[in-house]
């Protein structure tokens, strides 16, 4: 997800080779020193002489990216928001099951007024379900019946836990009649996997509804 490059960076009196990465909400650098620049705090950004130059309250940094510097500058100026990556459209019918960060819930409420906490209603566009153990994945079959044929379920789980891995989440999809189509990092601590109804099953659902 995002952009990543090996480059030389400067920050104050420090300079180092390392890797710079553009995430959903921050610009990261890992070398002899580390930087974590929240995009919302960036005061100015420009591409000049092959350098990406970024200013934020903690200082100024420059990343030598050559001809790609302008592309990076554009991405930093106009980052694609997390909700866009998750496919949350304005006015979409969205349901949230389980515990999520307050900021995420606030962003959802600002994007759509059709937001349900807890059990989702019928014909939901997107369901976000928080899971922490493999047994929590048994809820997927019930949630599948709540979404529209072309809707989706985002399964969200904590990163770095041996008790629940990405492979475990993927394996639960077919059991519930779902296929996984996309992975997104929601934050430093949360991963998300989107599941949808296979095309063939969507057709059957439409046929059943039309025959009622």
What secondary-structure arrangement, pairings included, does this model have?
Elements: E1 3-11, E2 14-22, E3 26-30, E4 34-38, E5 44-48, E6 51-56, E7 59-64, H1 69-77, H2 82-85, E8 94-97, H3 102-111, E9 115-117, E10 124-130, H4 140-144, E11 147-158, H5 166-175, E12 179-185, E13 190-196, H6 199-210
Parallel strand pairs: 8-9, 8-10, 10-11
Antiparallel strand pairs: 1-2, 1-7, 2-3, 3-4, 5-6, 6-7, 11-13, 12-13
Description of the structure:
With 212 residues, the protein is of the alpha+beta class. It has two domains: 3-77, PH-domain like; 83-210, Vaccinia Virus protein VP39 (Rossmann fold, 3-Layer(aba) Sandwich), CATH 3.40.50. It has six helices and 13 strands. It has helices at 69-77, 82-85, 102-111, 140-144, 166-175, 199-210, and strands at 3-11, 14-22, 26-30, 34-38, 44-48, 51-56, 59-64, 94-97, 115-117, 124-130, 147-158, 179-185, 190-196. The protein has a seven-stranded antiparallel β-sheet, with helices on one face. It has a six-stranded mixed β-sheet with strand order 9-8-10-11-13-12. The longest helix has 12 residues, at 199-210. The protein starts with a strand and ends with a helix. 27% of the residues are buried. The model has no long low-confidence stretch (mean pLDDT 90).
